[in-house]
Design goal:
It is a single-pass type I membrane protein. This protein is α/β, with parallel strands linked by helices and 170 residues long. It has 4 helices and 7 strands, in the order H-E-H-E-E-E-H-E-E-E-H. Helix 1 runs antiparallel to helix 4.
């Protein structure tokens, strides 16, 4: 009976920690941060943004801001009146849902600067047939980022297994 309780505890720990372990923090612009005259679309290319990841916008407070906008706001460099700008200089935005996401700086977007558009993918992509094409992704089509996510998953499983063994060895 007691061993069943421990198994449930271990399963609960895995369920709670797995998404945060697989998450990645992306500092927008890397070491450059959120600044003028930087190609953020080029920065985003090749990156695998997933639900659970976080975007971090670092910039001098008061010099810039971050607004989360829709496609129209992105194209026109405007935000609806109910959008509150982020202004801390270290703004962290969790990516909570898949889909297209748009970010602008209200001070500099109109000059063609400080705009970021990304596509957020689901947390885990299952290697099953695509409903539209029936094709199964090949091993060569997986990105390096998904390989990292798998490695993190296995590392977590090994830690959980070790924790599980320590509990039952006592």
């Amino acid at each position: 009976m007691a061993s069943s309780l421990w198994i449930l505890v271990v399963i609960a720990i895995v369920a709670i920690t797995l998404p945060s372990t697989l998450a990645t923090d992306f500092t927008v612009g890397d070491d450059n941060g959120w600044l003028l005259d930087y190609n953020y679309q080029a920065w985003a290319m090749g990156k695998d943004f997933r639900v659970g990841d976080r975007l971090i916008f670092d910039y001098p407070q008061g010099a810039h801001d971050v607004l989360i906008v829709n496609a129209t706001g992105f194209q026109q460099c405007t935000a609806p009146s109910n959008v509150v700008p982020l202004t801390t200089g270290h703004d962290i935005i969790p990516l909570t849902a898949p889909g297209q996401k748009w970010y602008i700086c209200s001070y500099h977007c109109a000059t063609g600067n400080m705009k970021l558009s990304i596509t957020v993918l689901p947390l885990v992509q299952s290697p099953v047939a695509s409903p539209s094409t029936g094709a199964v992704p090949s091993a060569n089509s997986s990105s390096a980022a998904s390989g990292i996510a798998i490695s993190k998953y296995y590392a977590l499983m090994i830690r959980v297994l070790g924790m599980f063994m320590m509990i039952f060895m006592v």
